[in-house]
Design brief:
The protein is of the alpha/beta class. The protein is built from twelve helices and twelve strands. Strands 1, 2, 6, 7, 10 and 11 form a six-stranded antiparallel beta sheet that branches. The longest helix has 18 residues.
Length: 362
């Protein structure tokens, strides 16, 4: 008898295929989580037993409680937001979970209780339990794209349509690399338009290099940054990249911010689906004088970074969180505030921005 798949498209995740269109947000998350899981299994990063445990819904209460101890120890040692949200609140959350499963236990219910406890105080758009984000579940991008960057001109104005800062194909890799190197080509352009709508992140490096070429200066948004290089995180880095030279410990960085004067006007279109490095792009572009952000609040997935999956050994439960933490302007948790707010609210297309530029109304 063949094993029944948990959902109709699991075989596509097993083969590492592209996510099909039209999936609801929960199924999108499940698809991406399982595709990552099977990819790790094929590469030998995790065993078949661990992969099977990831979907172990028959775990006993004793197994779940043992994993709970492991999880909270890992969070204390490696979650970038642990100190920000407070150890006392984490300990209370663990106590509440144990109380709620004491007399009524099922694995599904225990995972739900854990997620609800975390949701009550962890305002972090990256944080996921069993593949499900704690917050902003309605802001998972509903579409996939077969390109990373497209550059065009409309009435002489360069328009950068950037859907992701990562690549799935060699063509997308080349698009991002060419974009990163092209900043100096636009130094004399009075207007630039960046369409970041539906950009769900990737690497900050591409836009950072572009801005360096455009302005000759490093973008420096105001922030307080913390990075925890725990043993677990360093082991994952080693598995993925080999020896990195990253030292264990805690790194910190603070900047009051510095505005770059380029003499240009930059317009940035955003929506609720802009997240992670897409939101870093907002912060970096806002560090250039003359930048105007239009649209609606972004996705609220900026607070943490350098994320990793933890697969707990007894139940296979996956918890995903960042080892880094960013407070914008030194104190602001952008995720808790519901994302970056635009300077001008409204529904705008690129053509609308071009018209406003030509009419001198923006």
């Amino acid at each position: 008898m063949t094993e029944k798949k948990a959902f109709d498209y699991e075989h596509m995740a097993i083969r590492g295929e592209e996510m099909p269109d039209g999936l609801p947000s929960y199924d999108q998350t499940m698809f991406l989580n399982l595709r990552s899981l099977y990819d790790q299994y094929r590469k030998g990063l995790i065993s078949r037993e661990v992969a099977k445990k990831e979907k172990n819904t028959a775990a006993t209460k004793a197994e779940f409680m043992a994993d709970l101890d492991i999880l909270f120890d890992e969070l204390k040692n490696s979650y970038g937001g642990y100190e920000h949200f407070g150890e006392e609140r984490f300990l209370l959350a663990k106590e509440n979970v144990l109380k709620q499963i004491e007399n009524k236990y099922s694995f599904e219910n225990a995972v739900s209780v854990l997620r609800e406890e975390f949701t009550s105080f962890i305002y972090d758009g990256h944080f996921k339990v069993d593949g499900i984000p704690l917050h902003h579940r309605d802001r998972i991008c509903p579409k996939t794209f077969d390109y990373a960057v497209k550059v065009r001109e409309i009435e002489g104005i360069p328009v950068f349509d950037i859907k992701k800062f990562y690549y799935d194909t060699e063509e997308e890799k080349l698009q991002l690399e060419n974009f990163a190197k092209s900043g100096a080509d636009y130094k004399n352009c009075p207007y630039l338009i960046f369409d970041l709508r539906m950009n769900n992140g990737g690497s900050d490096a591409y836009l950072w290099e572009f801005i360096m070429g455009l302005t000759g200066e490093e973008p420096e948004p105001p922030m307080d940054f913390l990075q925890i290089n725990s043993d677990t995180f360093l082991e994952l880095l080693k598995t993925e990249y080999g020896e990195t030279g990253v030292e264990p410990g805690v790194e910190t960085y603070h900047s009051d911010g510095k505005m770059i004067s380029s003499g240009q006007k930059i317009y940035v279109l955003i929506d609720r689906y802009v997240s992670s490095s897409g939101e870093s792009a907002i912060a970096n572009l806002k560090a250039i004088e003359g930048t105007v952000v239009l649209g609606e609040n972004s996705g609220g997935c900026y607070f943490s970074g350098n994320c990793m999956d933890i697969y707990l050994p007894n139940t296979g439960l996956c918890v995903y969180y960042g080892t880094g933490r960013i407070l914008y302007n030194g104190t602001q948790n952008i995720d808790e505030q519901g994302g970056f707010a635009p300077d001008i609210y409204g529904e705008f297309e690129v053509a609308d921005v071009v018209v406003m530029i030509k009419n001198g109304t923006i």
